[in-house]
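Retro notes (design track)

What went well: tokenization of the new backbones is finally stable.
What didn't: we kept losing track of which sequence belonged to which structure.
Fix going forward: every design gets posted as structure first, then sequence, in one message. First example under the new rule, 59 residues:
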């Protein structure tokens, strides 16, 4: 997936206030530039773990 530039699509997501507060804190401390970036990174990492598993050859 490295180097792949995706066309962005707008979606609406409902989530608990505590999650939104966490997103805002990550942006506030400068770890991410926006809520959207935090969510994109989280979704990407979940998909990598759950769907895009690459065989490493380990036994």
């Amino acid at each position: 997936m490295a180097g792949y530039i995706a066309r962005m699509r707008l979606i609406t997501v409902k989530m608990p206030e505590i999650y939104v507060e966490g997103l805002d804190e990550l942006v506030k401390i400068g770890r991410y530039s926006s809520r959207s970036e935090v969510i994109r990174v989280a979704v990407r990492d979940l998909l990598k773990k759950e769907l895009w598993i690459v065989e490493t050859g380990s036994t």
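Added context from the reviewer: Residues 35-50 form the longest helix (16 residues).
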